[in-house]
Design goal:
About 45% of the residues lie in helices and about 15% in strands. It has 6 helices and 5 strands. A 5-stranded mixed beta sheet has the order 1-3-2-4-5, covered by helices on one side. Helix 3 links the parallel strand 2 and strand 3. The longest helix is centred in the N-terminal third of the chain and has 31 residues. The protein is elongated, with a radius of gyration of 22 Å. The N and C termini lie far apart (about 65 Å).
């Protein structure tokens, strides 16, 4: 009976581990490419889509929530949306989504929920609006200019995420 050298087992182990690493890398690359070229925003999977005229009814029934105004056609925001989706899932947040393309005058609707402090921040950009007791307490303008960690800190500061 012929004995197989131990170095052959070592080489086989290296080849198998290398193959597994390549497979995981290709899987991650595929998922990233698929997400980038997807037709809709990943945020739609974890949020409730709402029209501008439904916000007042929702605010009466659920006074504390976060409103995300964005466009699912904006491919530049997809990476941020993916990170925001993870933040939503990790913190069990209640998020409403308004497509600014379908609601071009969303800022006019939101002004009735604000006060003089926040009304000057309300615009038709990609923003997060923090609602407490049915009123806008804070606006995070141009959210895609921030890292997801900065957004998380701002939401904690506004008590939309538990600080535990």
């Amino acid at each position: 009976m012929r004995e197989i050298p131990k170095k052959n087992y070592f080489i086989l182990l290296i080849v198998v581990v290398g193959f597994i690493l390549i497979v995981f890398y290709l899987r991650d690359w595929y998922n990233t490419a698929r997400l980038y070229y997807a037709e809709t925003s990943p945020i739609l999977e974890v949020s409730t889509v709402i029209n501008a005229n439904e916000i007042s009814n929702y605010a009466l029934e659920n006074p504390n929530f976060i409103l995300y105004v964005s466009s699912d056609e904006d491919k530049e925001i997809r990476k941020f949306d993916s990170e925001l989706k993870d933040l939503i899932l990790d913190n069990n947040l209640t998020i409403l989504y308004v497509d600014k393309k379908e609601n071009p005058n969303i800022s006019d609707t939101l002004i009735e929920f604000g006060n003089s402090k926040v009304n000057n921040k309300i615009n038709n950009n990609i923003n997060l609006y923090c609602f407490k007791n049915g009123k806008i307490t804070n606006v995070i303008n141009n959210v895609n200019d921030y890292s997801i960690k900065e957004i998380e800190k701002k939401l904690k500061k506004n008590e939309m995420i538990d600080n535990a």
